[in-house]
Write a structure and sequence with these properties.
- InterPro entries: UCP012641, Zinc-ribbon_6_bact.
- It comes from Pararhodobacter marinus.
- The strands form 3 sheets. The protein has a 4-stranded mixed sheet, covered by helices on one side.
- The chain is an alpha/beta fold and about 325 residues long.
- It is built from 11 helices and 8 strands.
- The longest helix has 24 residues.
């Protein structure tokens, strides 16, 4: 994330601010343009009053670029769901900003938003199936219980995961979407990915069942970013894609605050032009320091993952896929 300044008083403002805390200027954010003061010509997203969305409405639309991708919102008649919706959308906006600045397509061939998100709660009837977070043909479903820290932590602990966040969910699930989209646009890219991640034509359902039944292979840490990544090539890609986004967003933020070498570029598109080994070098050095700071403060590990050579090679395959895709359009960053 970049650092932002109030357009009126130049005091620092933050990505989630709806107003400057110094001078009170009402703020509105536009991807590619940053923050401006709200004016009659700058129509705010229709979700501003309900969930605190501070983005500008898309041209001729009621909703902003991010909110327009949510096609199912939680049942607001259920207590707490408005707050859950607000927290989920607050986590989604930085991810949508990153996809925009990476130049990735955010619409399908008809011009409709893609991917789209369904934010759903479990049915009240305990005999009915629970809502599962996942991706299906460009539609990403998220169980809104993930917005509750205690529920998400309970799930993380039960599944033996080192890390589980709303941002991580979004980054992982959009990875599934872009595997399909970018390889469909260039079948040669599919063969390149299969050479790195494995043959995705193996039965997905059977692979997941075997993973949950038998666990990951004994040497998974030598070849995968997470145990779950070993379940199937699609999951390996999505997990690795999420970490590419972790690095890009993390390095952009650290660069803005002067925490990593100034010779690294600021723009995400320029970062993508660098070999992943270079980005990983900076990220590993930063994460080791931040892990130590977190531990000194009694917090959980900041980044509980190992970027070995095999993982970095997979991350670079994703970087090359993005840079080489004819669907990617470089966009101004703000």
């Amino acid at each position: 994330m970049r650092r932002f300044r109030c357009p009126s008083c130049q005091h620092e403002v933050f990505f989630s601010n709806t107003a400057c805390l110094n001078c009170g200027t009402v703020l509105i954010y536009k991807p590619g343009a940053g923050f401006s003061a709200s004016t009659p010509d700058a129509v705010p997203c229709a979700n501003r009053d309900s969930i605190g969305c501070n983005w500008i409405a898309a041209d001729g639309q009621d909703l902003c670029l991010s909110c327009a991708h949510t096609i199912v919102v939680p049942d607001l008649g259920v207590e707490g769901n408005l707050d859950r919706w607000a927290r989920i959308e607050a986590a989604k906006r930085p991810v949508m900003r990153a996809l925009f600045h990476m130049g990735l397509p955010l619409r399908d061939t008809t011009g409709a938003p893609a991917p789209v998100f369904k934010l759903k709660g479990d049915p009240l009837d305990p005999d009915r199936p629970r809502v599962l977070t996942g991706h299906d043909s460009g539609t990403i479903t998220l169980n809104i219980e993930e917005a509750d820290d205690d529920q998400r932590e309970a799930m993380r602990s039960a599944m033996g995961e080192p890390y589980r966040t709303l941002s991580g969910h979004f980054r992982h699930e959009v990875g599934h979407h872009y595997w399909a989209l970018l390889t469909e646009a260039d079948p040669r890219a599919l063969e390149t990915l299969r050479a790195v991640f494995g043959d995705d034509r193996q039965d997905y359902g059977e692979a997941l069942a075997a993973h949950y039944r038998d666990g990951p292979p004994a040497d998974w840490e030598d070849r995968f970013i997470s145990a779950y990544a070993s379940a199937h090539p699609w999951e390996d890609f999505a997990e690795t894609w999420a970490h590419v986004m972790h690095l890009l967003d993390g390095i952009e933020t650290a660069r803005a605050f002067g925490l990593i070498p100034a010779d690294l570029p600021v723009e995400p598109a320029d970062l993508l032009a660098l070999p992943m080994a270079r980005l990983a070098e900076a990220w590993i050095e930063l994460s080791i320091a931040l892990n130590a700071v977190n531990q000194a403060m009694g917090h959980e590990t900041f980044y509980p993952f190992v970027l070995n050579g095999a993982v970095i090679e997979k991350m670079d395959a994703i970087r090359r896929l993005i840079v080489g895709s004819r669907l990617v359009e470089p966009r101004k960053v703000a």
